[in-house]
From TrEMBL:
Pathway: Cofactor biosynthesis; coenzyme A biosynthesis; CoA from (R)-pantothenate: step 5/5. It catalyses: 3'-dephospho-CoA + ATP = ADP + CoA + H(+). It is an enzyme of class 2 (transferase). This is Dephospho-CoA kinase. ATP binds at G11, S12, G13, K14, S15, T16.
């Protein structure tokens, strides 16, 4: 099974692009959603998180996201330690999920994929980009949050300039119909890759 990464900074439009691939019948694995599920449902992972952060990481059996966010905010080492627990669990889950899919290829959508080296385990990487000011406007409108909060999350991610050379495909997501056409073009290219079931 060919595995393709789909990434992009906050507000770039990863989920929007993922939706276009799904319309073409391509299965999408949403890493961030699945990570939260595994943090709750995988007892081994949960034990390790409690050891690292304390039992307050869970409240009434549920992941205490606000508390965890406040613990790791501004503590890069602790955040790295948490990621070092969560990432291998997600990677293993993604591998077993993708083995069960019937499709010419699958997508792994993740906000952080290049920064942490995760892209090296994938066959191809698609990067979604948009100007930073536009991304801030989109997220402020979507999440009813402030520009400075979006900016601080953005500052924890790599710039597009740094990620572009490590990506196989770049989609500049501004005009939605142009984005849809770019998705169709990339889909056709992926089907032509030798070893893909769609290759002629
Ligand atoms: P995040 O990393 O924050 O989860 P994302 O990269 O998945 O974001 P989306 O949720 O797809 O981004 O898009 C962010 C917001 O911008 C959404 O409200 C979406 O509808 C809107 N949006 C996406 N693409 C465009 C576009 N080309 N033009 C205008 N608005 C867009």
């Amino acid at each position: 099974m060919m595995r393709v990464g789909l990434t992009g900074g906050i507000g770039s439009g990863k989920s929007t692009v993922a939706g276009f691939f799904r319309e073409l019948g391509i299965p999408v694995y949403y890493s961030d959603v699945r990570a939260r599920e595994l943090m709750e449902a995988d007892p081994e992972l949960r034990g390790r998180i409690e050891n690292l952060l304390g039992e307050e990481a869970y409240a009434e059996g549920k992941l205490n996201r606000a508390w965890i966010a406040s613990r790791v905010f501004g503590d890069a080492e602790l955040l790295e330690a948490l990621n070092a627990l969560v990432h291998p669990a997600v990677a293993a889950d993604f591998r077993s999920w993708s083995a069960r899919q019937e499709a010419p290829y699958v997508l792994q959508e993740a906000a952080i994929l290049i920064e942490n080296g995760g892209y090296r385990n994938l066959d191809r990487v698609i990067l979604v980009t948009a100007p930073e000011e536009e991304r801030i406007r989109r997220v402020v409108a979507r999440d009813n949050t402030s520009g400075s909060r979006v900016r601080s999350r953005m500052d924890a991610q790599w710039s597009d300039q740094r990620k572009i050379p490590l990506s196989d495909f770049v989609i500049e997501n501004m005009e939605l119909e142009a984005t849809r056409r770019a998705v169709h073009r990339i889909h056709r290219e992926l089907l032509e890759i030798p070893g893909s079931p769609g290759a002629s």
